[in-house]
Write a structure and sequence with these properties.
Blueprint: E1 3-7, H1 12-23, E2 27-32, H2 39-42, E3 49-50, H3 56-63, E4 68-71, H4 77-94, E5 98-102, H5 130-148, E6 152-156, E7 160-162, H6 167-178, E8 183-184, E9 193-195, H7 196-206, E10 216-217, H8 227-237, E11 247-248, H9 257-266, H10 269-277, H11 280-289, H12 314-319, H13 329-335, H14 343-356
Parallel strand pairs: 1-2, 1-4, 2-3, 4-5, 5-6, 6-10, 7-9, 8-11
Amino acid sequence: MVTIGVVGASGFVGNRAVEMLHDAGLLVRPIVRRAENLQPFAQMGLTGYVANAFDQAALAKAFVGCDIVIHSVLGSAGLIRGSVAPAYRAAQKTGVRRLLYLSSMIVHTSAPAPGTTEATPPIEHQPGFPTHIAKIDAERQLLKLRQKGPVEVVIFRPGIVFGPRSRWVADLAAQLKQGTAYFINEGKGICNTVYVDNLIHAMKLAIDAPGADGEAFFVGDREQVTWFDFYRPFAEALGVDLADIPNLRAPVFTHTRKQQLISSIRESALVQKALASLSGDLKSAIKGVLPKRQAPIPEPALTEVPPPEPVVTEMMAILQQSQYKLPFEKAERLLGYQPIVSFHEGCQRSIDWLAQQNKLG
């Protein structure tokens, strides 16, 4: 029976991958950074491993006996860049057959140009988005390693991955309740959704697909969804009138060279690897000796607290102006991919989860 290691098993996609693959009768090995994150998997009867994503030796111990490894690590640009080579080399050392890497459509920007396919060159100039460039670098590292190594590589570039426990669902619900949700261009932009189960289904197909090695895949929902369409079911579940959601203009965002330099240092693989090596106790001790910011003197309480105002972020400004639904014909052709959950059903499952978490009241 195939054994699948999931690096980043405590994250949204990784967690759901463990659940679905386990339910499908496959042997799944959750791999996380902190021991406490293994508790939910122990309750499922699964044996997990603790490994820092930068630690090749620890990863190799976790990969022993694995046929497939899913690499689903989220975080800083430095973590994204610095975690792929250790994972590939650990997989090579332990005889892993294929590594499935979770990248993102953001290698083509958050609003890919019309006509974009998996063969379209990535957009390397994306000021203000270091993680986007890091995903490009990570993909290239893996493909370069594959040229000399035996471990096959399959890359996935999903768009807006949503579902129960996702930040897209939780954050949208919070914004709708607080009155800070907004539309750009009246929500007419294309929202490249993929319900999480559809993404995991595609990954499962890639375990044995013969023509998948060295390929990248877009994976999405069948339906063409606008941002208005995405907001609507959640707004209705929360009793929010869509007409009350303001339509805002996207501001002009700028990035100075100083900001980009500071970000490049902070987000570097070297810095992030150093931070990842620190124990929780040491991090707490460092925080204890750092000077604390003096708390501002509170202003006199107002009789009425003004409601929070929506703030347009650069990421959402770009996302909501997208005019193109990414195609997944390649995944259909080489993987046999077809979405197994409709967009409507995915929204309903997400709403049911919000209700279970008491986040609809």
